[in-house]
Amino acid sequence: MGIGRKVVAAKAIKGRRGRKKARRAEMMEAQAEAAEAQETQEKVEEKPEEKPEEKKEEEKEE
Asked: Region Disordered: what ranges (predicted)?
């Protein structure tokens, strides 16, 4: 996805509309990266919560 946006931005540098499209493409790409980083951070936060529960269940079984 990112490659396509870069190509669009590279082609669209001519004139005011082109700059506007390039800027918008950069903003969308930055927003997508931020969302992806947030998702990975949420996954990392969820994992430690699951592990103690699993350990408690194992101890109960023993």
From this structure: 1-62
